[in-house]
Amino acid sequence: MVRPFLPLNGLRAFEASARHLSFTRAAIELCVTQAAVSQQVKGLEKRLGVALFQRLPRGLKITAEGEALLPTVTASFDQMAATLDRIEAGQVRELLFLGVVGTFAVGWLLPRLADFQRRHPFIDLRISTNNNRVDPAAEGLDFTIRFGNGSWHGTQAERLFEAPLSPLCIPKLADDLQSPADLAGMTLLRSYRTDEWSTWFQAAGVPPAAQINAGIVFDSSVGMMEAALQGLGVALAPPSMFSRHLCSGAIVQPFATVISLGSYWLTRLQSRPVTPAMHAFSDWIFSEMER
């Protein structure tokens, strides 16, 4: 197949300008002058016979034609970059894009990741952490590790394990906790799930009249635990994800009562083909579950 000449410099200038909505910021990224970027875009517009941007006093506004062109150009450059990234010293390396809820990444995955790297040296992991809210399609993720009930639209989910929640705090605060009802006098730390503390109080036998649900809300258990380590309050978090803090004595679990509001799941879009790297990671993580 003979392809027409592709104006790669113009397309590159257009894509960077569209992301920044500025010729100046695009020029900084591309290490060229603002005039060079502007000329490249003008040349592309002349070739296509349409305007890709409206030039405004304070930046750019992309036109409908530019909006139509941008996804194809972005995807093409991303694919080329990924392919080039896979080739290193004459060896093709497989990329694996993994989105992980931050608590799981810090509390379980990272301490075991060296083993995966030893077993699969030609798989390059690209890990992005999130607060359990993620768009696998938009972010181009092969796998996501999420917390919940395993039901996500268009997704295949395989259960990893439960992560029950329990109060965790520094020893100094725990000294003032003789019974679960004493938590009513503490600052309670929680995630964006509003029913966590009330569910735990019910499991611990604390009547509703004695329950206090006011506190500090965090978008991840990682941030919540950092606040707990600094003595800002009592966190309701999964002890299994913070075993290092518990073992060191920096954090204690004052009460044995736990509640389960979900599990961690390994998920992928049903529409995403399974690659050899994905097979390898799935096999590895489930073998780790059995240890």
Quick structural gist:
This protein is an alpha/beta fold.
Give an account of the 3D structure.
The protein has helices spanning 8-20, 23-30, 34-48, 64-86, 102-119, 136-139, 171-174, 196-203, 221-229, 243-248, 276-289; strands spanning 53-56, 59-62, 87-88, 91-92, 94-101, 123-130, 143-148, 155-162, 166-168, 188-190, 215-217, 234-237, 263-269. The chain has 291 residues and is α/β, with parallel strands linked by helices. The protein has three domains: 8-89, Orthogonal Bundle (Arc Repressor Mutant, subunit A), CATH 1.10.10.10; 94-162 and 263-290, 3-Layer(aba) Sandwich (D-Maltodextrin-Binding Protein, domain 2); 166-248, 3-Layer(aba) Sandwich (D-Maltodextrin-Binding Protein, domain 2). The strands form four sheets. It has a five-stranded mixed β-sheet with strand order 6-5-7-13-8. Helix 1 (8-20) packs across helix 3. The longest helix has 23 residues, at 64-86.
